[in-house]
Design a protein that fits this description.
single chain, 355 residues, alpha/beta, Nucleotidyltransferase, domain 5, 10 helices, 45% helix, DNA-binding
Length: 355
DNA sequence: CTCGCTAACGTTGACTACCA
DNA sequence: TGGTAGTCAACGTTAGCGAG
């Protein structure tokens, strides 16, 4: 674990790593609440290392010229893939929009549906523990003071292992994504359709029950004038609307600059008539594709007897909700995932109807 | 703290079901 | 047949959450 503090050594390493194809990178930030600035950059080029000995720790605290060198030679370079967890955070200190070819493991993890990767959250810690099968990862140093020097042994240990874990998590995520998002061009639409049919049969009843419980809970909370319960919170919001002509006139006379795109609904298009092709109107067309299930819908179940909202048993309703929520979430994520795959596959394979 | 994501809900238009 | 109400999917907006 080379811990580099000398400017020339750091510069030499940056030059060396500028030749890499892929780097696993993490940063530590000093004083992130009040005066956030880079403290440490951890970079790893060899994902096979499990010990942390291959992780380079670059001490860049209050040495902006070194950070700039790192940005210019590595972050901006589109030929080097940079892998980070929650990249948008680190990137704020490493080149912002100029950073190119970034892979974010948080985004990768979020892309994987819950039924394939059922996790309580997508923290790096959780990913390490479940994907790499490591019982406990000590993250207490994360909240430590990275503005102090010298750094403690514990801090350096934590910093070097983060890059190692990151590389391992990244590899696992790649494997999972590869499996659950096959090439749309070679998807088997029949098999996907069958699977969809099967899952929908389980999902439909649960989904409608979830919707019903929520609806009844909402009505009951409104009737009982409750804003909070142990199961749901009820909040309100207000949308403001004004007459378009009046608003347009007012902004004109008051000289307020209001400029934003307006959706041309079918109704407005009708009223505009020929004027829609007027050269001063630069109409932007946005195409969207819709997937509709061709599977026979069963009849809507007969109306159930629902108690008066004011006399609903909120505990019973809430407990039922809690009971079916986990299963529904898994099925819902699978339904969404299947739909996405079918849609992509149909677009690519240019097919008409499938079940 | 900042940024991006998500849940919740509203709007729109294509479509269906039902009725007189 | 035409009118109307309901369903569904796509998209927009907003508040609040959660990543480090």
């Amino acid at each position: 674990m080379p811990y580099l503090t000398v400017a020339n050594e750091i510069k030499a390493l940056i030059a060396k790593f500028a030749q890499a194809r892929i780097l696993w990178i993490d940063t530590e930030i000093a004083d992130y609440k009040f005066n956030p600035r880079l403290s440490l950059i951890q970079a790893l080029a060899d994902p096979r290392d499990l010990t942390g000995d291959a992780t380079f720790l670059l001490d860049v605290l209050d040495k902006p010229e070194l950070a700039t060198a790192f940005i210019n030679l590595i972050m901006v370079n589109p030929n080097i893939e940079k892998v980070m967890h929650n990249a948008s955070y680190d990137i704020r200190f490493l080149g912002n929009d100029d950073a190119k070819n970034i892979t974010c493991t948080l985004q990768m993890a979020r892309k994987i549906p819950a039924y394939i990767l059922p996790l309580r959250n997508r923290q790096l810690k959780t990913l390490i523990e479940t994907l790499c099968n490591i019982a406990y990862v000590d993250k207490t140093e994360q909240g430590g003071d990275w503005g102090k020097r010298p750094l403690t042994e514990k801090q350096l240990e934590y910093a070097k292992m983060d890059a190692v874990y990151l590389a391992r998590v990244h590899r696992h995520l790649l494997e999972i994504i590869d499996k659950c998002y096959p090439d749309p061009a070679t998807e088997n639409l029949t098999a996907l359709g069958k699977q969809y049919q099967k899952i929908e049969a389980q999902w439909k009843p649960l989904d409608s029950e979830i919707a019903e419980v929520k609806e009844r809970f909402k009505a009951a909370m409104l009737a009982k004038k409750l804003k909070d319960s142990s199961y749901f919170e009820l909040s309100s919001s207000i949308t403001m609307k004004v007459d378009f002509l009046t608003l347009a006139n007012l902004t004109q006379t008051e000289g307020i600059e209001l400029n934003f795109p307006v959706t041309l609904t079918k109704e407005i298009q009708k009223q505009l008539g020929q004027l829609i092709s007027h050269p001063s109107l630069q109409v932007e067309d946005i195409a969207s594709w819709r997937l509709t299930s061709n599977i026979q819908q069963w009849r809507k179940s007969t109306k159930k007897i629902v108690p008066e909202p004011a006399s609903e048993d909120l505990i019973a309703l809430g407990e039922r909700y809690k009971e079916i929520l986990p299963e529904w979430k898994l099925l819902d994520s699978e339904i969404e995932h299947l739909k996405e795959r079918v849609k992509k596959a149909m677009l690519v394979q240019n097919q008409g109807n499938t079940p």
